[in-house]
Structure formats: C-alpha cells, structure tokens
Amino acid sequence: MDHFSYNAEGRYCAEDVPLPRIADAVGTPFYCYSTATLLRHYQVFSASFAHAAPLVCFAVKANGSLAVLATLAQAGAGADVVSQGEILLARRAGVPASRIVFSGVGKTEAEMAFALEEGIFQFNVESEPELRALSAVASAKGATAAVAVRVNPDVASGTHAKIATGAKDTKFGVPMSEAPPLYALAAALPGIRVQGVSMHIGSQLTSLAPFAEAFSRLRMFVGTLRQAGHGIRTVDLGGGLGIPYHDEAPPLPEAYAQLVRREMDGIDAQLIFEPGRVLAGNAGILVTRVIYVKRTAGRKFIVVDAGMNDLIRPSLYEAHHDIVPVRKPEGGAAVEEADVVGPVCETGDIFAQARKLSLPAAGDLLAFRSAGAYGASMASTYNARLLPAEVMVRGSEFAVVKTRQSYEELFSRDRLPPWF
User: Fold this and answer.
1) Torsion of CA 20, 21, 27, 32, to 10 degrees
2) Which of 172, 179, 191, 411 is the most exposed place for a label (fewest CB within 10 A)?
C-alpha cells in the first residue's frame, strides 16, 4: 500500500497534495516522497519481527535523501552503509553510531578510521585483505573493531544478474567453506573482536525459497563457528525483499518474518536486517512533463523532460515502472501503444516500450511510480543535465528536501589548466 492516488478532481496526489501544485512550485522533473508511506512500510516491517527485537538498518544506498533518512531514524531505524559519505549522511540524519553497520567490498583505510572514530556498531568484513587492513587501522588508533564476516552461501536468488550477490562467482563475501580460517585469523589479530556473521544474497527477491535455503545454511554455519569457540552474538540476514513494480507478487514482510522465525528459532543472537527497497521503493515517485509527442512510421514516442540520468533503472536493469497520467484520463479515452523516452543522447534512454496508455499532450505531467529506491540515489549529470529536485510530503504540506541543481553548482568543480 502507498499514499499516491487520484483525488475527487482527478488529480494524482501524494497524500493530500496534488502533484500539479508541486510541479508549479519546483518545476520538473522532481522526485516526491510520501512520509506516510515510508513510516507505514517501516512499521509493518519492524512489527513483523517484534518478537525478536532486531536491529533494522535501512540500506542508505537505496535512498540517500537526508529527509528520508531522518524520517526513518526518528522511527527507530539504524543504517546499513557502504561508504564514509553514507556514514556522514546517516549521522546527520540522527542515526546513532551504535545502530550503523558498515558493509561493502572496498572499504578504504581512511573510511575504516572514520568509522572507528564514530564508534559504529559493526564492520561486515568481506575478505582477508580487508580484515588485515582493519586490524592495522584499529591497532594504530588503539581501538577495537567489532566484526562479522560476510559469508556467501552460493544460493541462486532468482533476481536480475546485476543485483544478485549470493552466488559463488560474485565479488561479495567469502564462500562458507573458506570462512572458518578467516574467523580463526580474526580471533588472533589485534584490534579485532569477532562479533557475528553476515549474509546478503541479492536485491528484489520475489520468492521466499532462496531466503529459506540461505538461512538454513547460515544457521548450520553459526553452529560450526560456535563449536570452534567463536562468540557469535549477531546474525545479519541482509535485505533483498522485493516490491511489486508491475505484476510481481513478492512475499509480505509477515511471511518473510515467519520464515526467519522458523529458520532462526533459538539462534540466541541479535538479528540484523538491511531493508532498503522494501521500505523506500513504493514511497517515492518521479514526476516529469511531456515535451513532445513524436510520430514516425508505425511508432509513437512520448518525449519527457526526465532522462536516464534521472532514473537509470529501466536502462540499466530493463526495469518496469508503472507510468500514470497526473490528470486522470476522461472515461472512454483511447489507449494507444507508445514508447516513453527521455532527451538524453542515448538510444537506451527509454522508460517504456510499446506501453499501453492514454496518449498525453505536450505539457502534461506523468508520474513514474515505485521510484523511491535507487532512483535519485543513482542519478547523474550526464549530458550536463541538472540533478532533479526532491520533495517530501506530509499530509497536506510539502517541502523541498533537495533543491534542483543549478548550472553554477554543476560547473563549480571545473578548472581550466594554467596554459589557458
């Protein structure tokens, strides 16, 4: 469920705010986030695990808007981060360092030092070189890093190849068969305290079967580690629960929680989850304006002012986003097939192909649904295009939470060499 719908006047709204009102104030394209949807998704997810009192760490990579992070932080969420920048964002949003987990395969020594200074809860270590580097950094600072090793269960997650992380040929984690020696090394290294075990098998999973297989293997592995004398106090199950973009029917958080309860019953460890998309995905939309409707032999193109630089998921993952007109079509309006495309100079700048919709006119507004995760956070300035504005709605009010980039800001880092 989300809080985007048509009102009695046929205007598409974010909660109680008609989108044309926002477009008039901030221009297009813009991202719009619903506070009520964010909070509802977090509360449903958290309530599903109330019996376990887990640490729920929002995956900051899914949406790095300070307002989104602050909304979730006030509701009690921690943060799953993959860079120093994301640590800074989480801290500025009010996330306590004690609720931050640092993941990622390429942590630099500078990032490790910063995380230790902040006092984060846990490092999810993904290789022996990283473990040794963390030991050296922590020892030099007279600090101790609490670690979990990210293990790879070699489970086929059934998701898009570019967001599948649990197979043995990905860059993530270490195979379970290779992890026991790494734990032995961790126990012997200075500046390291073994705290837990971590796993994440992919994103946008729409079936519980891969989770069940992975969790079963993880539970047995925790037993192996404890028999070897390691004090495993945290079990990080990652994220990955999918959302309905089109015709998917992903499991509800309650069903996911029942699976976790069954597989982890009696594990005697604090559970950690890293949800991202399932909290933010359907809490955000991208609003764009039609520039032209272009007709060629046998084809129609709806050219909009948003481009693949604003929302890259369709180009990168062949992803589907429902596209709805902001002005509800009149009853009986003809439905036609058209491609929805952006102005970027790439053939791949396509949001939808042969999509059936009521053909809009130049100047009309369209909303791309389910754009709250991996939308604005993956935006770029390709073609010297400005980063879009971001807006948050709460009830009948809205606020700009990230201003549209100006050309002065876009070019502010450029410098000419002295020979000019």
Assistant:
1) -80
2) 411
Distance CA 14, CA 283 (A): 10
Helix (H, G, I), strand (E, B) or coil at 234: strand
Amino acid occupying residue 346:
E
117: β partners: none
Taking the whole predicted model, whether its pTM rises above 0.85 is answered as yes
Residues catalogued as catalytic: 345
Within 10 angstroms of residue 167's Cβ, the number of other Cβ atoms is 16
176-199 pLDDT, tens digit each: 999 999 999 999 999 999 999 999
Q: What DSSP element (H or E) covers 141?
A: helix 128-141
Give the range of the structural domain holding residue 239, as residue numbers without chain letter.
Answer: 35-277
The SS3 call for residue 410 is helix
Structure tokens at 197: 């075990």
CB 274 within 8 Å of CB 80: yes
Flag whether 419 is in a domain. Answer: no
CATH code for the domain in which residue 313 is found: 2.40.37.10
383 inside domain: yes
